[in-house]
Amino acid sequence: MSANEQAPVDQNEIRRMLDQHKDKMKTALRVCAHCSLCADSCFLYHVNDKDPRYMPSHKFINSIGRLYKKKGAVDRAGLEEIKEIVWRRCVLCTRCYCPLGIDIPEMIALARDICRSQEVYFQWSELEQPA
Amino acid sequence: MYDFIRGPLVWVAFLVFIFGTAYQIYRFYRLSRPKEPFRLRIPFGKPPKEPDETPAEPVLTWWQQVRLSVVGVNPIMTAVTTIFHLFLVLTPFFVLGHNVLLDVAWHASLPSLPEVLGDGFTVVVIAGGIFFLLRRIFLDRVRAISTPYDYLVLLIATAPFVTGFLAYHQLFDYDTVIVLHMLAGEIMLMAIPFTKLVHMPYFFINRFVLVHENTLGAGGSRIWR
After folding, report:
1. Which candidate from A24, A30, A61 shows the least CB-CB separation from B145?
2. Does B142 contact A35 at a Cβ distance shorter than 8 Å?
C-alpha cells in the first residue's frame, strides 16, 4: 500500500476516464443552480449538524467537479481529499433529491471509480476501532 | 449602437435562446434512455401471480407526505421560488410597453396587464432576486457552494427587471436606461442555454420526463444513460 501511495498519479488515465463521461459531467455541473435544496435530503447532512460539506451538491462539486475543472491534474493529496468526500461523506444511498434532476450518485460513483483507478480507496483498517 | 441593440441583436438573442435551448434538450435525450419495463425472471417454480391492481394503502397520510417533501421542508423557499419564477417568465409577455411595441411592429399583440400590475409583478421579481441574494450571502449551506459566477447569473436574471422598473418610472437618464434594459434582456435570453439558467428546461425535464418518485404527470419516460 505504501508503494502505491508513493507512485505518481496517472493523470492521463484520469483524463481518459473524465473524457468518457464528459458530456454527462458537463451537463450536471452546468445544470446545478447551487440552490442547496438537496441538503435536507441527505441523512448524513442531518446527523452531522447540517454541516454544508455533507450537502449532496457540495460533495459532487468538490469531487467530480474539481477533477473536471482541473482536467485530471490532481496529485495524490488531492485524490485523498476527494476520497474523504466520496467515501466518508457519502454512502451512495441514492436518496438525494435534486429539483433539477441531476444524478448526483452517479457523479459520486464516477469520482470513486477515478480514485480507485489510482489505488486510492477506503480501507476498513482506517476505521477507528471501538474501545 | 442603439440601432444594433434594438434591431439585429434582438433576433440574434432569440435565435441563440431557441436553438441553444433546443440543443440542450437534444443533449439530454442523447444522455438518457427510455425506461425499461421491470421484468422479474423466475427460472423455476410456478410463474408469479399477476400483480394486484388495487393500489397499496399509503403508509403516510397526505399531510405527512407534504411535510416530508421539499415543500414541507423548505416552505418559504418553495413559495418564493415559485412566485419569482412564474412572474419572471410571464410578466414580460403581458407588460403594456412590450405589447405596444409589438402592436406597432406587427399590428398584433397579447393582452396587456394594467400598468399598476405590470409594475407590481416587476417589483415581485426584484424582491425575489433580493431574497436569493440574501440567502446566498447569509445561509451557510448556500454560501458553501457559491462562487462569483452565481452572483453574476443572479444579476443577469434580474437586470432586465431592474432596468425595466427604472425605465417605467423614468428614473435616471431614460435613453440610457432603455438601451440597458434591451441589452439586459438580450443577454439574459442568450445566457439561458449556456449558463446554469439552463435549469429552465431542466426543471420540466426533471418533473415530467425523468423517472423518479417525484415525477409529475404520466410518471416519466426516460432515465439517465
Report:
1. A61
2. yes
Residue B125 · residue B87 · CB < 8 Å: yes
Q: Exposed e or buried b for every residue in A80-104, given b needs 16+ CB within 10 A?
A: eebbebbbebbeeeeebbbbbbbbb
**Closest chain A residue to B73 measured between Cα atoms?**
A40
- The number of beta carbons lying within 10 Å of the beta carbon of residue B215 is 16
Contacts of B147 in chain A (CB under 8 A): 34
**What long-range pairs does A113-116 form, CB within 8 A, spacing at least 24?**
A113/A17, A114/A14, A114/A17, A114/A18, A114/A64, A114/A67, A114/A82, A115/A79, A115/A82, A115/A83, A115/A86
pLDDT tens digit sequence for B179-224: 999 999 999 999 999 999 999 999 999 889 888 888 887 777 888 8
Q: Give the whole-number percent of chain B exceeding pLDDT 70.
A: 92
- Say which range, A17-26, A110-119, B49-58, has the weakest mean pLDDT: B49-58
